[in-house]
Amino acid sequence: RKMIAYLGSKRTLVNNLVDILQVFPELSTVGDIFSGTSRCGHAFKRAGWRVMANDHNAYAYTLAQCYVEADRENVERDARILIAELSRLKGEPGYFTDTFCVRSGFFQRRNGERVDAIREAIEAKNLDPILKSVLLVSLMEAADRVDNTCGLQMAYLKKWAARAYDNLELRMPDVVMATPKGSCKALNLNANEAVRNFATDIAYIDPPYNQLNYLSNYHIWESLVLWDKPEVYGVACKRMDCRERKSAYNSKPKHKAIFRDLINNTKSRLLIVSFSDEGYHSYDDMMETLSTKGEVFVIAKDYKRYVSAKKGEKVGKVSRLRNKEFIYLVATPELQRDIPGVLTRLRKISNKLTDNDQGFLI
Asked: What phi and psi, each to the nearest 5 degrees, are found at residue 64?
C-alpha cells in the first residue's frame, strides 16, 4: 500500500479531479475541506496548486502536514537520516504492544514492539512539527502494511493476514516539491468552522455520507499520532472518546442541515462536491442545496463498492457491488462574473468525464 487503506478513498477519482482543476488556470488555490488521507490534496499540490487541506481528526491532520504542507526540498534530507536511525531500533514493548497485540490482534507482537520503540523515540526528539509529521506518516504507513484487518479498525481478522507476518519497514513518504503558486497549509478544524475561517478559489468538498465514523474506523492511527495512551474499550480496543466524538455528518437526521450550513458558508468561487449514491442525500437533495450557490453541472462515475463480501467473507446479503459517485461542479455568480465562458468550460468537462454507460443526462 502506498497510502493507508481508507473508507471513501478517491483513488479512482483523483485524476478526474485534477483534470477539472486544470480547466481553470486562472485560479490558483484549492481547499480540501475533508482531507482524510490527503490523497487528493497531495495530487492537487503535485499538479501545481496551492492547497489548504483540512481535517478534524489528528491522524488526518498529520497526513495533511506531511503530504500537503511539507515541501520535499525542506524535509527530505533530515527525514531520510532520521528514518534510517529509527529503522535500527530494536523493539520495546509498551502501550501499543499491550493494546493492539496482546489485548487485541491487530498486529504481530514483534511489529507492535517496534512501533512502540520508534514512536517513543520520535516523541523524545522535540522535532519541528512538519518534520515530525513526515516521520509519523512513515510509521503509520509501515504499520498499515503489516496490519491484520480488511482496511478498517472496527475489528481484526480471526486468522492472521499474510502481510501481518511481514516485518515493519519504514519508508520515506512521497512528499512533493513546493508549488510555484505559494505555500500550502494543513489545518485541524471542524469542516464547517474551516470554511468560515479561510477562502480558496476552489473548494473540494467530500463529506462523510453515511453512518460510518472515521474516528472509530481509524482509532489506532489517532492514538499512534497523539500518543496520549488513552483508556480503551471493547474487543477492538477503541479510544474512549470514540463514544463522544460523534459527527453530525454521520447522522441521517442531522446531515442535511450541517451540509447546507457548510455550503452556505463556503466562500470559494468554484465548488467541487463528490457524493455517493449510497449517501444520506438523494441526487435531488444535492441539487436543491447546491443550486442555491450557483449553476450546477454533474459528472457521474461508476465504481466498485467496498464490501468484505468481495474478499470471500459473508457479511449478510449484499445488494450490489457497484455504486455511482457524483461530482457536482458549482459555478458561483462571482466565478461567472470573473471568468467569461466558464459555463461552457464546465459543460464540456462534465460531458467529457461522465461515464458513457450511466444513462445520466446533464
From this structure: -70, -35
